[in-house]
Design a protein that fits this description.
Elements: E1 6-9, E2 15-18, H1 47-73, H2 82-100, H3 103-128, H4 149-152, H5 154-175, H6 182-198, H7 209-217, H8 221-236, E3 262-267, E4 271-276, E5 282-284, E6 288-291, H9 309-315, E7 320-325, H10 337-356, E8 361-366, H11 368-383, E9 388-394, H12 412-425, E10 427-428, H13 430-440, H14 442-445, H15 447-455, H16 464-470, E11 475-476, H17 477-489, H18 492-495, E12 499-500, E13 503-504, E14 514-519, H19 527-534, E15 541-546, E16 564-567, H20 575-581, E17 583-586, H21 590-600, E18 604-606, E19 619-620
Parallel strand pairs: 6-7, 6-8, 8-9, 9-14, 14-15
Antiparallel strand pairs: 1-2, 3-4, 3-19, 4-7, 5-18, 10-11, 12-13, 15-16, 16-17
């Protein structure tokens, strides 16, 4: 990355000798004489080299800006910024109106903030004179400020405290503003958190002690490398920033991800159906069909062999079939929920029967794939279709009253803007959904990587989960609009008002046994929301709560002995009461689920080869649809 005594071009029309310290490729502690506990690391020792490298960094920054401008001038990148910014200003204006409409309230808000600032200033003066300082307990612990100089250095301590106090004050203005409806308050809280996350002093080179020290130690070489990566990421996004979270060169689907052996045995316009090779001499008579979300790719359930839920199911004796959704384009603009049921779930059920001769299956639906599966079950109930004998829902919402932060993006005005944009292309760009998910956890998935990549100049480490997270999918216009309106906006499935196939659906008609998994820290399908939805089904429901979040709580192999899960039978009463009486079990929920499946049907037959005698293999797993990238 950086070489000692390397000749580099400065971009100023001449060759310059830019000297780097030995070991500049590593962390700050690898530089000779570097002592992070002294003031020495903050003193620029080679201003000439620093100036040269800052010029080189600006050159790369100019390349990134040129990529952005050129793509927008050519009209290749739609301007998505106007809609959220307009909504942000409108939403926060409602909060401001409450506080400025009454002079007394305005004075109270100002006094609260100024008094907090006075406390910070008093503590800073005391610290500068060497007196011991105890910060108030109201200042939260924050891993962004883990570096010791955020506490020990008076300058950085002052910045941190001022930021934390101002952030808490801004959030308090939202929570204590009267007259806001629930949705506006949720949006205001979300937008305030986005703004405060972006404005953290940890995000800027001159106000982050670790970045400052690293810049001095490398004479700005970190900024050269960081701005080079920024230019590359802007080019990779075609004029939009594609923030890198992992080393993408280290992964390839079918080689070190999605490796479970199998065959694609059927294909429709919206999906491929994969059947996996058996690994046991006998298998459960009833096959297993997995319906993943179409907003991400199915191989989240088939990452590395050690993490693969699909491989684990195969090893337990399940005959596993998985739907691999198409990455839609303009050809799929009119594919709606009915199409995804008919050409997806129904098509897969027919394929399973042809391949195995079995009419009944155990079905799993993950996230929005589970919502689609629930609607399919309600439709089947009206048709007296009993092909799905049991249903497992993984972090699935069927009642969106208590849905997570994604509701911030869904109201009539925002939906109209999204539908207008989708009508032009026939789909929602994959980057829009990826950015929305990243914004839900901006302090974990955006700003730490901005600092590490572009300010520290460090390549991110290989991480299969983050590779998958960046492997975006587009949304077919009709399908996405139906989902947002009927689930997030109008909540029709929970009300018994969803219309599909000329029928009005009710989940009370669904009598099959249900295994309903929620995860404790889920910000997309909160456990309370999943719990509330459990009451809507007409048959027996086993509610299980897993530790961790939307992904890690599901993808939790038993041999890792990680996290835990809670069981307490039927989900009756209040969520808090259920949790208080629940039994905690260490480790993965996977064996508990498998026992639940076997309790309902444990008959076994000889292992089945993909396709059986009726269907020929179209391609090896993981198929072709999953390889389409955006």
């Amino acid at each position: 990355m950086y070489k000692r005594n390397q000749i580099t071009r400065t971009g100023l029309g001449e060759e310059q000798l830019v000297k780097k310290s030995e070991g500049a490729e590593g962390g700050p502690g690898e530089f000779p004489g570097f002592d992070p506990k002294s003031v020495e690391p903050y003193v620029v020792k080679d201003p000439h080299t620093l100036a040269i490298n800052l010029a080189r960094a600006l050159e790369h920054l100019g390349q990134a800006a040129a990529q952005w401008l050129a793509a927008h001038d050519r009209g290749e990148v739609p301007d998505h910024a106007a809609d959220p910014v307009t909504d942000l200003v409108k939403t926060l204006a409602e909060v401001a109106q409450y506080w400025v409409s009454d002079p007394k309230r305005t004075l109270e808000a100002q006094t609260l903030l100024l008094s907090s600032y006075m406390g910070i200033w008093t503590r800073t003066l005391a610290q500068m004179t060497g007196q011991p300082v105890i910060e108030p307990d109201t200042l939260p612990k924050d891993k962004r400020f883990a570096d010791e100089d955020w506490t020990k250095n008076p300058f950085f301590a002052f910045l941190r405290q001022a930021y934390q106090v101002t952030s808490s004050w801004a959030e308090k203005l939202v929570t204590e503003a009267d007259g806001l409806d629930d949705h506006t308050r949720m949006k205001a809280t979300f937008y305030v958190r986005q703004l405060t996350a972006a404005l953290s002093p940890a995000n800027f080179a001159l106000t982050n002690p670790e970045v400052y020290r690293h810049t001095v130690a490398t004479s700005g070489a970190n900024l050269v490398e960081g701005m080079r990566m920024l230019a590359e990421d802007m080019a990779a996004g075609g004029g939009e920033l594609r923030l890198r979270h992992t080393d993408h060169k280290q992964f390839k689907i079918g080689e070190n991800l999605a490796m479970t052996p199998g065959k694609v045995i059927a294909q429709s316009d919206v999906c491929e159906v994969i059947q996996y090779d058996p690994s046991t001499e006998t298998v459960l008579k009833r096959p297993l069909l997995i319906v993943p979300p179409w907003i991400n790719k199915f191989y989240i359930l088939d990452l590395t062999p050690q993490k693969s839920f699909i491989k684990w199911c195969v090893d337990q004796g399940h005959t596993v079939f998985v739907i691999s959704w198409v990455n839609p384009d303009e050809r799929h603009a009119q594919k709606d929920w009915e199409a995804y049921i008919e050409e997806g779930v129904e098509f897969a059920l027919e394929t399973v029967e042809k391949a195995t001769g079995e009419r009944q299956v155990n079905a799993i639906g993950y996230c929005v794939g589970g919502t689609l599966l629930a609607a399919t079950l309600a439709l089947h109930a009206q048709k007296k279709d009993r092909r799905i004998a049991s249903a497992t829902f993984l972090t699935t919402q069927v009642d969106f009253t208590l849905a997570g932060d994604l509701k911030v993006f869904v109201d009539e005005e925002q939906l109209a803007a999204i539908e207008k944009q989708m009508s032009k292309s026939g789909y929602l760009e994959g980057s829009r959904m990826a950015n929305a998910f990243n914004m839900l956890r901006a302090s974990e998935l955006i700003w730490p990587y901005v600092v590490s990549n572009y300010l520290m100049g460090k390549e991110p480490l290989p991480f299969d989960l983050l590779y998958w997270n960046a492997d975006s999918t587009r949304m077919a216009a009709a399908n996405h609009a139906y989902y947002l309106r009927n689930c997030y906006l109008d909540n029709t499935l929970s009300k018994g008002e969803m219309k599909l196939g000329g029928r009005v659906l009710s989940l009370k008609d669904v009598k099959v046994p249900v295994y309903n998994l929620a995860t404790k820290e889920d910000h997309i399908a909160p456990p309370r929301s999943v719990f509330k939805g459990s009451a809507l089904f007409g048959g027996p429901v086993e509610y299980v709560l897993s530790g961790s979040g939307h992904i890690a709580g599901v993808v939790n192999p038993p041999d890792k002995q990680k996290y835990q899960y809670w069981t307490n039978g039927k989900p009756h009463g209040k969520f808090e009461d259920w949790v208080a009486k629940a039994k905690e079990s260490k480790g993965s929920w996977w064996p508990h689920w498998h026992a639940w499946i076997e309790k309902r049907s444990k008959e076994r037959v000889d292992a089945r080869t993909p396709g059986g005698s009726a269907l020929n293999a179209i391609a090896d797993a993981p198929g072709t649809y999953v390889l389409e990238r955006v």
